[in-house]
Structure formats: C-alpha cells, structure tokens
Design goal:
Distance between the termini: 28 Å
Radius of gyration: 21 Å
Strand order of the largest sheet: 2-8-7-6-5-3-4
Number of helices: 13
Order of helices and strands: EHHEHEHEHEHEHEEHHEEHEHHEH
Strand content: 5-15%
Largest sheet: 7 strands, mixed
C-alpha cells in the first residue's frame, strides 16, 4: 500500500499510541479532582502543556487542548470577536482558508463583521502590502493560514507578524495545521496571539488538537459549564489525548530539519516526473511551497476518477481536501488562485509525511503512468 494522503490524516505513531494507552490504563483520574489520582492526571496535563510551549517556543502563551483544529479555529475566531465586540468589526484574511475558518467568518459577516479577503494571486510582498493597506481603525483581527492544505503554498506569516507589530490593537491568528512538525513554527518569532494545530496531522490521535492563546488575550468560551482550561473550554479534560499530542509533537519537531530535507528530495523527484507526463498541470508552483504537498490535474481526467483508478493499484491520494473531497463542486481554493474551473474540478492532491519514502513516490508515478492511458482511452 502506498499512502499519499497525509494532509488528510496520518497513521498514528506506535510510540504515541503507546503513550495514549498507558495514560488511559494508569492515570485515568479526572485532573479537576482534589485527590491523589486526580493530582496525578493534572501533573501529566501540566507536563504536556509545558512540553508543547517549549517545542513551539511559545513563552507568552497558554495551551487550550481541544478536539482538533476545527474547534480551535472556531474558538479563536468566535471567542475573540465576541470578547471584543466594542473594539471593532473588521477582519482580514485570505479566500483560501480552511472551511473551519472560512465558514466561521461567513457567519461573523451575518453578525455585522466586515471581512477583507486579500488577493493571493500576487507575490508575498504584494500580499503583505495589501494587508497593511486594508488595516483601519475598525480592524481587530488578521487570520492567515501558514500552509494551504490543498496546494501547499506557504504564506508569509512571519513577515505579516512583524508588520503587525506596528498595529498593537490588531490581533493575529495563524492556522498552522499543515505546518507544525513540517516547517519551523516559532511562536515568539511569529508574533501571533493565537495558533491552531491538530494532532492527527502529525501522527497523533484523532480528536485531539490545541489552540495557543497569548496569556494576555481575552476570549469568550464557546463551550461552557465547568470552567476547565482556564475557563476557555469546559468539560473533563482529555489527559491521554493531551499527553499523546505532546508526544507526537516532540517526535516530529526534534527531527524536523532532517525530515524536511528528505521530503524535499521526494517532492523534487515527484514534481519532475509529473512534469514529464503529457496533460499534467501542476497547481503547486509559483510561490514558496511546502514540499509535503503537490496539487496537480491530469487533464481531462476528473480528479475523483483518478483517485479511484489509483486506489485499484493500492495507491491512495485525494481529490481536494478531506473536508470537501466529497463535494461535486470545483475546489474553492483553486478557483481563488485563478485556476480555471475545468482544471480545478480535475485536480488531485498528493501529500507526504515523514514516513514517506522515495520508493513510495516511484510506485505512485509508475501507477499513474499505468492508469492515465487507460482513463484517457475512455474519454
């Protein structure tokens, strides 16, 4: 089996699973309880928080463990906007954010917020200038993803953070789901007040994520009834999930540079081979690119058709992102990039993880070369 859909989810690392099971077996107490069993669980929770803050260099932040990045993004955007209603109602973002950001912002528009969508069909410098030009007295938040989940484009989040230092009333949220554990994520250098991530994108357990929140930032809780997580997320805390998340984070951050170099070679090989195939259109070019994602179309083959054809060869890729792959519409992300509706409808995504090998990429290319002539003959 060749699994190349790692941006959707990754296999769980055996060490992470072992840690999750061990905590469930031996430290199953409620961390809010006053007795020794609860105190043991609380100690593990605090240890996990410290490890996360250290690995992401987030010295001025606190950790809110969540059910995943979708909840984290909802808490960041809704929680912040509803905590500062009187300060302003203008938000700056891009048109290619994950649905858990994009749809939340659409909802906030119905509540009277004004959203500026920055044109991404331009250089990073042009994008940076447009963000700054859009800032006004009513601006309260900038929310930008670090790496796009469909194309792998890396947005200039560090430069944006540096620029926003000139506007102390504007807060900054970064969706780092596709960058944590793959690219360098340094909160102190990033200058963001909030950052979202998910465990199952880095060989962790599904249903576990977190939101880093600046210790001086006020949010209004979305889930109430108990006051856990510093009052930001009520409910019994998932200590085994928190421990497993911290473990997964350590296992990808410590060898990050080594893994990056390996995946960059696999990316270069795969891209060069794809470019040799007639009809292939590459969508993951033109900007700074994460080597973990390649988006392409094999014109005129529909993306869904290609996914299923490769599956018969036990090669697994995806059409669009996992959150929208079952939608019959062309990718909103690719359309926003200026890609034609035909190509956007036919595009697929190959995504790597630290477990991916060059042999995996070679097998994918061979399978692709096998199925494409068969599929084109049916057109």
């Amino acid at each position: 089996m060749i699994y190349l859909d790692n941006s959707a989810t990754t296999p769980v690392d055996p060490e992470v699973l072992a840690a999750f099971v061990k905590v469930n077996e031996n430290f199953w107490g409620n961390p809010s309880s006053l007795h020794t069993i609860g105190a043991q669980a609380e100690s593990l929770l605090m240890q996990s928080e410290r490890q996360v803050l250290t690995l992401l260099n987030a010295s001025n932040h606190r950790v809110v463990f969540t059910s995943g990045a979708t909840e984290s993004n909802n808490l960041a955007l809704k929680g912040f906007c509803r905590a500062c209603r009187g300060r302003g109602r203008h938000i700056i973002t891009t048109p290619v954010e994950h649905p858990s950001v994009h749809e939340v912002l659409e909802g906030l528009m119905e509540e009277g917020y004004r959203i500026t969508f920055i044109d991404i069909i331009q250089s990073d410098e042009g994008m940076l200038n447009e963000i700054e030009a859009a800032i006004c007295d009513d601006t309260v938040l900038v929310s930008i993803m670090h790496v796009n989940n469909e194309t792998g484009r890396v947005f200039p989040v560090y430069k944006i953070g540096e620029m926003l230092k000139k506007y102390p009333k504007v807060r900054y949220h970064v969706d780092a789901v596709q960058s944590v554990g793959k690219l360098n994520v340094d909160m102190d250098r990033l200058g963001a007040q909030m950052l979202s991530m998910s465990a199952h994108k880095i060989h962790g357990i599904k249903g576990c994520g977190l939101l880093l929140v600046n210790e001086n930032l006020q949010l209004k809780a979305e889930i109430t009834g108990g006051g856990q997580m510093n009052g930001l997320r009520s409910g019994t805390i998932n200590v085994p999930g928190a421990v497993a998340l911290a473990k997964a984070l350590r296992l990808v951050v410590e060898p990050l540079n080594e893994n990056y170099k390996k995946i960059a070679k696999i990316f270069d090989y795969t891209l060069s081979e794809l470019l040799k195939i007639e009809g292939v259109v590459i969508n993951s070019t033109g900007h700074i690119q994460s080597p973990y994602i390649i988006n392409f179309a094999a014109v005129p083959i529909k993306g869904e058709t290609l996914v299923h054809a490769l599956e018969e060869h036990e090669v697994y890729i995806s059409a669009k992102s996992a959150c929208s792959s079952k939608s019959a519409a062309a990718s909103r992300i690719l359309l926003a990039m200026g890609i034609s509706e035909e190509v956007a409808f036919e595009s697929v995504r190959v995504s790597f993880s630290s477990l991916t090998t060059l042999e995996d990429a070679e097998a994918f290319i061979e399978a692709l070369k096998t199925v494409l002539p068969e599929l084109k003959s049916r057109e």
